Structures are given as structure tokens and as C-alpha cells.
Amino acid sequence: MKNHYFILCLLLISGLLTGCWDRVEIENRIFATAVAVDGNGAGEGDRYTLTVAVPTSAKDSGKDTAGGAGIKKASGATLTEALQKLDAQTGKKIYLGQAKMIVLDEAVCKEETLFRGVMDALDRHADIDRKVLVLAAKNGAAGILETQPPDESLPGLFVAAIYRQKSKAMGITFRRDFEKLCAELRATGSTMIPVVEAKDDTIKLAGALAIRDYQQAGSLDDTETRGYLWGQSGACEGSVLTVEADGVNVPLTVEKHKAKVSFYEAGERLRCLVEVRLTGQVGEHLFNDHFLNENSGREALARSYAESVADEITRTAGKMQLELRMDGYGWQDTLRKKQYTLYKKYAPDWTRAFSEMEIIPRVTVTILESESDTPL
Amino acid sequence: MLSANEKITTRQFQILILLETFGTGVIILPRRAAEYAAQDGWLIVAGLTALALLIGALLTSAARIFPSASFITYTRRILTRPVAYAAGICLLFKLLVGAGLELRLFADITRQTILKNTPMPAVCALMLLTAAYAAARGMETRARVGEILGYLVVLPLLLFFVIAFFDIDLSNLQPLLITPPGRIVSGTLRLGYIFTGLESLLLVFPYLNHTREGRRSALRAIALGGLLIVLITLITIAKFGPDDLAAQPWPVLRMMDMLNIPGSFIERQDALVFSFWIISLFMVMNAALFYGAVLFKDLCRRGRHDVFTVISAVIVLGLACLPLEPAFIYRLLDGLYGTFGVFYLLFFPLVLWITARLRGFTSGGEPPMNDPTEEPA
Hints:
Chain A is an alpha/beta fold and 376 residues long. Chain A is 38% helix and 30% strand. Chain B contains 14 helices and no strands. In chain B, helix 2 packs across helix 14 (326-358), helix 3 packs antiparallel against helix 4 (81-113) and helix 12 crosses helix 13 (305-320). Chain B is globular.
């Protein structure tokens, strides 16, 4: 009996311990679904404007939203200060752990101190999910959160859904989560961030922002972004590549995409061979035209696709080498992993080695036969 | 209890070794190994496993000379009474101080990652309350608790690591084998303190059901634990790459948090690894309190086991609550393991074993005829 009292006492004591100090009741918590950081310049005063999108009830939605997403904004000299002001505004604790997307304004990316300040604040924030998507916006990050995309009132969930359905994002954009972004920045100070823009009442993903030495070095447009993605296995599966053959636009839906990057030395110069193998199906040609029934026709078309892809790879690589002057592909790391001897030789002056490197694309396209292509 | 013979089975013994010795290693080793040898860090962990097997063989060789005798008794018979008492006091000091400092580090990390506002003494007290209860109930209770917790935690943890395997980039392990061997050896020796809990092998033999199998089962458990940590280190390096791994304080926790598990509704997946660590530390604490009480009782030659457990718990709690900086605690732990740890893992069992051989004691506790140190019953 004495033992039972002892155990009962222990149980009562344990109820007073640990987690009780850290509790936040559910009604006192706001779940942010997306976060946007806008920059107001690196001078005096409020440098950042922090915007969060939060789901609101029907009762609240009449006040500050027209369909389920509430927008909360606060400015501060630091991101931490802005977040604290946001907390004070709402009277509830804002929880960022459920945020699906962080959007950084181009103005933040252009200033090294602003960009590094944001990255450090987010890295230190214990609630931030390391898998959260990071995107850049060219015309203000808050605008992305204020957009109400079709069929989904919460922009964070809308973008997450696009990435979940790979065919919607492949060949157009790429996934950059917070952990990967931090890892790349820690290793080289450079990275690529996919661009998001609000257009015609919806959200569009296309293009990329190049960050070199913790600040924006330039950007890639849609085609250049695809040129960047051809070098990464699987990144363009599901994308549609269109070439003109005999005055007709012929689209190829890429089903398999393999890419391999290797390096070798020619003289005192590094050469990079980008081998890309694509397999896909032609989506349309001309009805009742037997161009694709003949091997020669299919081979000619495959060559056209290969040339188009090689051209995109060369254009993007040229831009990286000469204009952006940064290795956005992470080829320095690839060289370290695959050819360590060459890495030791070229790594000390990698910026020069990369910009002088000859990049040779070798693209092979295989067109799969469909029922309509069966020889007559 | 189903029985009260205070003896544990071979399987229970192995689970205790796994939980007591390898729990901290799972959390700490991948990063520390990558600091020394980057992508070849797993070689250091493999080296550590080999070292742990050697130490395990040495410790069990010394302990099984008198398998049914307590630490103080067999040390007294081999190395004389004053040496036995001095060794007992030093081992007690090492166990309790080590437990206090480890508990303090655990409380600091818990407060950083999960319980930010909870006072540190509350975290320590909760851990010690449960650990002391298990330790006070005896070896069999510890073993049964370990058995239940082992299966509850290790199996889901293994499942998570299998899932993690599909989300890694094996090219992060390249280039292979470029770290100079000297650096691997140096890293192995410097990280050897990870297996400091192994000295409990000196104290555990009287509680084994089958002492003859003690050595073999201990070595099997060490080999299995080592293999698991090598795999976990490989997966962690492949997930983050050596540079990113070295920059992360708790990479295994982060890796678990980043896993994409279909249909998962758990907000903090890292809590699973954390729970393994909590359970492992719980086993480390209750081992320290249990063996602390055993040594106390043997040294005093009177008193009750549960009273000495409470005394040990109070000492450990006092040490854990000292106002010390984490950096200083790490230095203290390094110092403790570098001196007392190495002494009890290496030198002491070696001296015991050699002296026993020279004096004609053989494995199984057969004393020579006319043993002058043998006390009358």
C-alpha cells in the first residue's frame, strides 16, 4: 500500500514537470501557410516587411480577406523584430512550422546584408520546417501572398500542390527547399532560387534568380531555366519540348530524362561533357500525315530535338560563365566527387576555371512509337 | 515481477548493452566523424566498432575470471583489498560524475530543441526520478524495461532509417578513401570515449543467467550496435554531404525531420530519434544509479540497495544542476573520459587480467589452491 502512495505521488509530480512550461493552447496559435519577406533597403529604419498568410474563419474573412486567406503584415529593422511586431498585432502566437513557402523579394536578394540577415534569422528560427519551399519574387513578395489562385485560397498550399504534382513543375522550375538552400550557401555562397510571379490572378512559376556571394548576380528566363535543368537527371520529365519540322510545330513530351556530367582536361583547360539522354513521345503532328511512320522522319525529328536541347544548354552555360560568372550547377562539387585529382588542381581558382571551361553538350533523343506511328 | 532471481537473460543483456552504449553515439557520431574524415567518416565509426570489440573482449576477459563475484570482491582477490577499495571509489566517482555531466548536457539540448521554457532542474529531476525507480527495483527490472523500450523504439527507428535510405544521394560519399590513414586512426582514438559505458561489463557478470555466454553475447551486441551506427553514419553523410553535416549540431535529428513519409501526420519526426536518445539516456542513468548503488553497498558492506540508489540520484542531480557552461562541461567530460574512462576501459582490465593469469586464476573463477587472499566464509 505504501508503494502505491509513492507511485501516486511520483505521477502527480511528473504532471508538474517538463512540457507544461512550453504549452501554447490551440486557440492562441495562428498557423502561417506562407511567409513573404520584402526589403526596404539596407539603410536606417525598417529594413524588412514580413507578411504571413494565415487561414481565417468565415467570420474573420469578412474583415481582411475574401475567401479564407488572411494577410498579416509588420515591418522591422530586423526580421526578428518584424515577427515580434506581428505577434503583438494579433495577440496570438504565430507558428511558422506549417508554412509551405517562403517568398523572398528581389530587393532582399540584391543586398547582401539583407539577404544574409533573412537567411540567418530563418536558420535560427526553431519552428521553420527545413523542407519549406523557398522562392524569389521579382515584383514584391507580399503580392504573391495576396493573390488568390483558382481553386485554392491559400497561396502556400497552391504552390506546394504544384510541386507535389511533378508534371506541372518539371522543365519549368525546380524545387529549392530551405535545407538545400542553406547547404549550398554554406558551401559556396552561391545558389539558384526559383522565381514565382503573380500574373492574371494566379501564381506562375518560371525562371530563376542567381545568387552569387550572397547577393543577386542576375536571373534566368524560362528558356534559360530549362537549359539549366537539362543538366540534372529527371528535372525535365513531363516537360514539353517543341521544334519546327517542315513548317509544323511538333511537341515532344519527355518521359525519361537522364543526365551525366563528366570532366576531362584538354591542354591546360578543363572541359565539361554534359551527356543528356531523352526519351519521349510526340504529342501531335499533322493528321493523316505519315512523316513519323518513316525511320528517317523520326530520326530527323530526334536530331532537331537534340539540337534544340544542346542549344539551350549552351546558351544557359554561356550566360552562367560570362554574365553571371557563377557555377550555378554545383559542378565544383561534382568534380570533387568524380575526379578528385582534377578538383585539387582547379578548385583553388574555380571561378576562372569555370568561366574558361569548354562545355560540350551531347544530347541523344529517342522518340517512342505510338499507335498512330505504326508503319502502314 | 514474474520472477525475482535478479538474473537477466542473454538477450536482455545484449539489449542493455545496445541501449546503454550506443544511444549517445547515434546522435553525436556522424557529425564528429565527418569533422575528422569528411565523407570517409564512416571509416572512423567502423574503427571505433573494432576498438569497442577489443575493449569488450578485454573487459569480459577480466570480469569472467570470477563471474559470480562482485567487482570489489574479485578485485580484492586478484589485486588486494586496498587496491580494490581505491578502484571501487574511483569507479563510483567516474560513474556518478559522468552521469551528472551527461544529464546536464541532455537537459541543455532538450531545452534547446523541445522544452525551451522548462527549468533545467525539472528536466533533470524527471529523468532521475524514473531512472532511480528502475534502478532501485533491481537488475531484473532494468532488463525488462530495457527489453520493452528496446523493441518499442529500435524497430520504428530502423524503419525510419530504411525510408531515409531512399532519400539520400550516394554520390555524397565520393571520393572514397581519400582521407590519410593517420587521420582515421587519430579520429578513432579521439572519439573512443563514445563507448565509455562499456565499463559496466566489469560489474554485470554476477547478474547474468548464463555467465559462460556473457563474453560472446556482449561482443555480438557490440558488433550489432557498431554495424547499426556505421550504417546510420553512412546514411547521414550521404543525406547531407560532409560539409553540410559538419555544420549541423544534430544532423541525425534533422535528417529524421526532413524525411518525406507518405501519409505521415507527425509534426516533429525528429522526436523519434530524440525519443531513442531519451530512452538511451534513461538506461545510461539507471545503469549509473544501479551500479553506483551496488558499489556504494559493496564499499560500505552494509545498507539497502534502494537507499544507496537514492543517494546516488541526489549526487547526480546536484552535479547536473551546477551552474556550468556547456563548453566547460564538454571539457570536463573529455577530461573524465580521457583519464578515468581510458583507465577503466583499458588499463585496469588489462592489469586485472594479467595479474590473475600470473597468480593462476583461470576463467570461471577457479582460484588456485591455498589462495592467501581468500577470506573464510
